[in-house]
Each structure stands twice: as C-alpha cells, then as structure tokens.
Design goal:
It contains 21 helices and no strands. The protein is mainly α and about 450 residues long. α14 runs parallel beside α19 and α17 runs parallel beside α20. The longest helix has about 55 residues. It is globular and about 75 Å long. GO terms for molecular function: transmembrane transporter activity. It is a multi-pass membrane protein.
C-alpha cells in the first residue's frame, strides 16, 4: 500500500487526476472547436441575415419617396409591408420540411438567391398589384432562412453556448438599421433621377444583388462538424459529446419527435411569446423612420441617422445580455428587457413633442427588445432535439411572420383612424410588455435546467 501510494504521488496518475486531466482536455478541445466554428460560420450567416433584414426594412426608408411616387395610402403601404408575412405563413411548414430534407447549406443557397432577386425586382413596382405580389413572394423566399439557421446552429453549438451565438447572429437585425438605414438614405439622395430611376428604385436594386452573391458563398459551409476538415479529431469528438452525450438528463427531457413537439403546450407558449414580442418589434421598426422624419423634418439621410441611434444601442444591449451569463438566469434575461422596453415605449407617447426625449425612450425600448431577442431564440434548442427543432422553429417563426404583417398594418389603420400615432405606439408597447411577462412566468426548470 505504501509503495502504491508513493507511485501515485510521484507519477500523478491517480484516477481522480486522470479524470480531471481528461475533463480539462475535453473542455479545451470543445472551446477550440466552438471558437473555430464561430469564426468560420458566424460572420457569413450574420452578413446574410443583415441583407435579409435590409431587404425587409429598406421598404420603411424607401417609403419616404416610394409612397409619394406611387400615390400609395398609409393603409396600402401597411398592407404591402405586411404581405411579406402571408407568404411566410402559407409556406412556413413546406419550407421547414424542405430545410429538413435539403439540409441547411443547400436551402440557404436557394433562399438567398431567390430573395435577393425578388428584392431587386421590387424596383419595378408600378401598381398596388405588383407591390403586393412582390412582397408576398419575398416572404415565400425568406421564410425558411431562420429555421435553417436554428437547425444549423443546433448541429454546431451546445445549448449552453446558444445565447452567445444567437446574440452575435442577431446583431444583423439592429445593424441593418444602424448601417442599412443610412445606406438606403444615401442611395435615395445620391441616386435619385440617375438613369431615369428614383432613388428608392436604386435602393432595392443595390441592396438586393448582394444577397444573390451571398447565396453562392453559402455553398462553402459544412453541414455538420463531422465534415469539417479544419477541426481536429479531438475537437470533433469533444463537440459531438457536448451535442449528444454530455448531459444525458437533458437529452432525456428533450422532445425528439416533431409530432410530439406540435402537441406540447410549451411550443404554443413560445408561439404566443414570439407573436407578442414581434408585434411590438416589427411595428416599431417599420414606422420609426416615418415618426423620426415627421418630428425632425430632416433629409432622408438625416432621418436614417437619427433612426439608427436606437438600434445602435440595441446592438450593444444584445451583446451584453447574450454574453453576460449564458448558463444562468435565462428567464430573467429574456423577460425583463422586454418588460422594461415596453414601459419605455409607452412613456415615449407622453414626451412626443420633444424629439430627443422620445428618441431616448424609444432607444430604451429597442434595446430591451434586442436584448430579449437572442435569449428567446436560444430556448427552442433547450427543449427540442435536432430532429424536431427545425419544425418547431418554423412554427414559432410563423408567429413572427403573422406579427410582421399585423404590426405595420395595425399601425397604419390606427394612424389613419385617429389621425396620430399615439394609440398605435401604446398598442405596440403593451404587446412587447406582455411578451416579457410571459417569459418571466415560464417554468424555472425549463429555462435553466432543461
């Protein structure tokens, strides 16, 4: 016994030390694998999502010229802005099935090429019918993009890292306003009447073409980590273990069959939260440039720069919230920002006569919404397994599509009915606050332990 003890002490090969060393080696290999994957995947898909959002929201800036040129009413504009959602709603499930069948890589290629082409063709809008048709088709083209991304991330990053990854990915949304808004305003001001085209037409063309090019770039990504030549065997094994075997209790709790997931009440709670959150988020995103323009009476470029301020702060809030504690407090970090954001948005109505006061409160509202966004979309991967997550993400995303339609339309109707925007802003604030409250009321075990 004395000899054995001496041998263990001198060689340091006790079972406990061996297990500790193996655990440390696993953690190091997993960290390297996730870091490599993040550097190779996140920039490309984030840029793609940037243009996806830009192709959606550039309509809110193009409206400043487009509505006058085509003589569209606020209701017509609101319906056209939201018809994107009807294409999404009708084709969400076929798109989700196509994602599962084709894989994320091939589907992302097809989606980017299709929506970039359709967005560019919006420059030829000349009537209400063509406007509505192109917006509907854009929704059909884009709707499978997000479920494909959720599925793709679930194959590359463990659940406890999802909030960080999502926060980096979702940076594309506020940045599409921070940079895309001024870019659209600049194009509209500088290219107006060039070659006989309006500035808004040039904006659709020049911002649609990059999506097509990014579609071909998507063919360079790997579908699964096992196929990545830039990962070592140890890194692949560590990532595979983290994704499938490291937490057997969690794996047992996850819902693996799509049919079971569709019957599970948690899915429909997520759907409700997603609708409420996005009703406030998209409604504000589409109407913010108009509200800022009416208050400041500035140029298109000046309006875009002012409207970018809330989303710059939103991008910062998203990163801070996503990186602060990816393993703990997910419920609080999901619900509280939306609740605070809704209260700030409601308060902005009381100071609407002051451009800067209302802009500060709107910035808090946008920051709250953006901080919630990445945390919320890390939840499906905690509850649903790889085989069910694409279908569930598609169902949840349908609620976002419905809100995408409802927010701008309701704002347009209320503005035309009341002659102002205060009623619509309060409605958006209430919806955002309700989403935050529902997130705070989610079962603690589900959010932190699943």
């Amino acid at each position: 016994m004395t000899i054995e003890t001496s041998t263990e002490t001198s060689t340091g090969t006790s079972p406990a030390r061996i297990e500790s060393a193996a655990h440390d080696a696993h953690d190091a290999a997993l960290a390297r694998a996730c870091r490599k994957a993040a550097w190779r995947i996140i920039p490309l898909v984030t840029i793609a999502y940037f243009f996806a959002n830009l192709d959606r929201v550039n309509l809110s800036f193009a409206k400043l010229q487009m509505q006058e040129a085509l003589k569209f009413s606020d209701v017509t504009y609101g319906i056209g802005a939201g018809l994107f959602a009807w294409g999404a709603l009708l084709f969400q499930m076929p798109a989700s099935l196509a994602v599962s069948r084709l894989g994320a890589r091939r589907y992302l290629f097809l989606a980017l090429v299709a929506w970039g082409t359709i967005s560019a063709l919006t420059m030829f809008t000349s009537s209400i019918a063509s406007f509505y048709s192109l917006r509907f088709l854009l929704g059909v083209a884009e709707i499978g993009f997000f479920p494909a991304i959720v599925l793709y991330f679930s194959r590359w990053f463990p659940a406890e890292r999802q909030s960080r990854i999502m926060s980096m990915f979702f940076l594309a949304m506020p940045l599409s306003v921070v940079f895309g808004g001024p870019l659209t305003g600049l194009i509209m001001d500088r290219f107006d009447a060039v070659a006989g085209l309006g500035g808004w037409q040039w904006a659709f063309l020049l911002e649609g073409v990059p999506a097509v090019l990014l579609g071909f770039a998507m063919l360079s990504i790997r579908e699964r980590h096992a196929d990545a030549p830039w990962l070592t065997q140890a890194e692949k094994q560590a990532l595979d273990y983290a994704l499938t075997q490291s937490t057997p209790t969690q794996a047992k709790r996850k819902i693996s069959r799509a049919a079971d997931a569709l019957r599970h009440p948690l899915l429909w709670i997520f759907v409700t939260i997603c609708f409420c959150f996005n009703l406030g988020n998209f409604g504000l995103m589409f109407w913010l440039p108009t509200l800022v323009h009416q208050a400041s009476q500035g140029s298109n470029m000046h309006t875009a720069l002012l409207a970018a301020i809330p989303y710059a702060l939103g991008a910062l809030a998203m990163v801070v919230n996503g990186f602060s504690a990816p393993r703990e407090g997910v419920r609080l970090r999901s619900g509280l920002p939306a609740l605070v954001g809704g209260a700030a948005l409601a308060a902005s109505v009381l100071v609407s006569s002051s451009v800067w006061a209302s802009l500060i409160l709107t910035s808090i509202a946008v920051a709250g919404g953006m901080a919630t966004l990445s945390m919320f979309w890390s939840l499906p991967g905690r509850v649903f397994s790889d085989s069910a997550v694409a279908t569930c993400a598609g169902m949840i995303n349908m609620a976002a599509g419905l809100a995408f339609f409802s927010g701008p339309v309701v704002m347009g109707v209320l503005k035309q009915w009341t002659g102002g925007v205060s009623t619509g802003i309060v409605m958006l604030a209430a919806s955002l606050s309700l989403a935050g409250l529902l997130l705070l009321l989610l079962p603690r075990r589900l959010i932190q332990d699943v």
